[in-house]
Predict the 3D structure of the following.
Amino acid sequence: MREVMELIQLAQNGDSDAEEELIFRYERLIHKYAWHNNQYSEDCKQQLVIAFILAVRRFDLKRYLS
């Protein structure tokens, strides 16, 4: 299994498989936050996945690798 930083770097370079693996790794957390007022929202989950990928794409790796 690849390291998270490697997956982020690959995802930032356009690797959709790396994006998929990151989503899979953090799916439980995304699922957890898709609950609101004791109800699960698929729309909320989709928005969270989009926000997660956008955050991965703009994550500053240089700042954390040095």
Notes: The chain has a mean pLDDT of 92. The CA atoms of residues 8 and 56 lie 6 Å apart.
